[in-house]
Amino acid sequence: KEAGGESDKGKLAVGAVIANRVKAQSWMGKDLKEVILKPGQFSPWNSYTNYAEGRQGKEMLGEAAKPSKASYEAARKILSGDYADPTGGATHFVNPKEKEDVSWYEPFVENKPIKIGRHQFGSPDNPNWSFQKSLRPKVRPKGLGAK
């Protein structure tokens, strides 16, 4: 439901955030279920977890909530580990048009999130996070003996 209207890359990016949270083994959760059902973290589950009086919650368990084939494929990639993380290790994402006032959003923006579809991906908790940073030089150095 978080990425239902997104491209394949957008669906994979949302799944990568969940996987990155599991990898972090932090307050965000220790396993997939704990991460996904952490109250207040994934708003479609607000009705189920009763967070924020259910605001932004969606029907998550009925027939109407059946994921698309593309969503199943993104989930398969995440669960198998057979994917390249399009978020660069992001632990958070938000659709700025749907966000409520949240305390983490300002540091999130300060840490330069990346945009994939309608979402921004990044990390408000890690000031050193930046998708833009790369260990690769922008211009490859000339090989030895090059003139």
What would your notes on this structure say?
By secondary structure, the chain is mainly alpha-helical. It is built from 5 helices and 3 strands. It has helices spanning 8-24, 32-37, 46-49, 69-80, 105-110; strands at 92-94, 114-116, 119-122. Strands 1-3-2 form a 3-stranded antiparallel beta sheet, with helices on one face. Strand 2 and strand 3 form a beta hairpin. Helix 1 (8-24) packs parallel to helix 4. It is globular and about 40 Å long.
A few lines on this structure:
The protein is mainly α and about 150 residues long. It is about 30% helix and about 5% strand.
Defining traits:
mainly alpha, 31% helix, globular
Average pLDDT for all residues: 76
Biggest sheet architecture: 3 strands, antiparallel
Shape field: globular
Helical/strand content category: mainly alpha
Helix content: 25-40%
**Over the alpha carbons, how many angstroms does the gyration radius reach?**
17 Å
Give the low-pLDDT segments.
132-142
Intertermini distance:
56 Å
The spatial strand order of the largest sheet comes to 1-3-2
Question: What is the count of helical runs?
Answer: 5
Please write the string of helix (H) and strand (E) elements.
HHHHEHEE
Number of E-type strands: 3
Q: Please indicate the percent range of residues in DSSP E strands (runs of 2 or more).
A: 5-15%
Write the layout of secondary structure elements.
Layout: H1 8-24, H2 32-37, H3 46-49, H4 69-80, E1 92-94, H5 105-110, E2 114-116, E3 119-122
Antiparallel strand pairs: 1-3, 2-3
Helix pairs in contact: 1-4
